Amino acid sequence: MYGRKVKLRFLFVVIILITLILSVFLVLKSLEENVIYFQSPSEINALTEIDKKKIRVGGMVKKNSISINAKEIKFIITDFKNEINVIYTGAVPNLFEEEKGVVAEGFLKDRNFFFATKILAKHDENYMPPEVKKAIEEN
Fold first, then answer.
1. How far apart are CA 129 and CA 41, in angstroms?
2. Residue 114: CB atoms within 10 Å
3. SS3 per residue for 54-109
4. What is the pLDDT of residue 88?
5. The dihedral sign for the CA sequence 50, 55, 60, 64
6. Beta-bridge partners for 105
7. What is the pLDDT of residues 14-54, one digit of tens each?
8. Residue 38 is inside which H or E element, if any?
9. Does residue 8 come out as left (phi exceeding 0), alpha (psi in the -120 to 50 range) or beta?
10. Per-residue pLDDT at 23
11. Taking the alpha carbons of 22, 26, 28, 32 in that order, is the dihedral positive or negative?
């Protein structure tokens, strides 16, 4: 009923569609494995079970909570409702200090302890690099 050209075009379109669907599936599957969820201390406190997946905890560094040893840094992240103790080994960013925003990436031990593998310090919307601030003050 259909000619050879029509059958070849149909086969070509079907192969392209299958390849496209397979590619989209593989991309979404690989992204799913690399997604890191962001949670606040209140959300962690409300968890029913602790996963062993890598997560990010965000909030403010509690005042007078930073304790620095030779090997590790301990501090508390708060969202002003709940708190979580964080233990981190490594160098912290320059913007990391008390009463500033921070995001810690790592693994939960339980609802109260978090082992960070990476610290990301945040600045507020009014942040200005010191060089720019100095130039403005001089003018």
1. 30
2. 24
3. CEEEEEEECCCCCEECCCCEEEEEECCCCEEEEEECCCCCCCCCCCCEEEEEEEEC
4. 94
5. positive
6. 56, 118
7. 999 999 999 999 998 888 777 777 788 888 888 878 778 88
8. strand 37-39
9. alpha
10. 96
11. positive
Bridge partner list, 59: 102
* Cβ atoms 59, 77 nearer than 8 A: yes
User: Both tokens of residue 131?
Assistant: 């060089």
Q: Phi first, then psi: give them for residue 38, nearest 5 degrees.
A: -100, 130
Q: Classify 38-121 by CATH class.
A: mainly beta
How many Å apart are CA 111 and CA 124, to the nearest integer? Answer: 27
Question: What tokens were used for 96?
Answer: 């990391």
Nearest to 53 by CA among 135, 102, 110, 108: 108
**0.85 exceeded by the pTM?**
no
State how far the Cα of 66 lies from the Cα of 85, in Å rounded to an integer.
Answer: 10
Q: For the segment 87-125, what is each residue's pLDDT rounded down to a tens digit? A: 999 888 888 888 888 889 999 988 889 999 999 876 665
Q: How far apart are CA 84 and CA 51, in angstroms?
A: 16
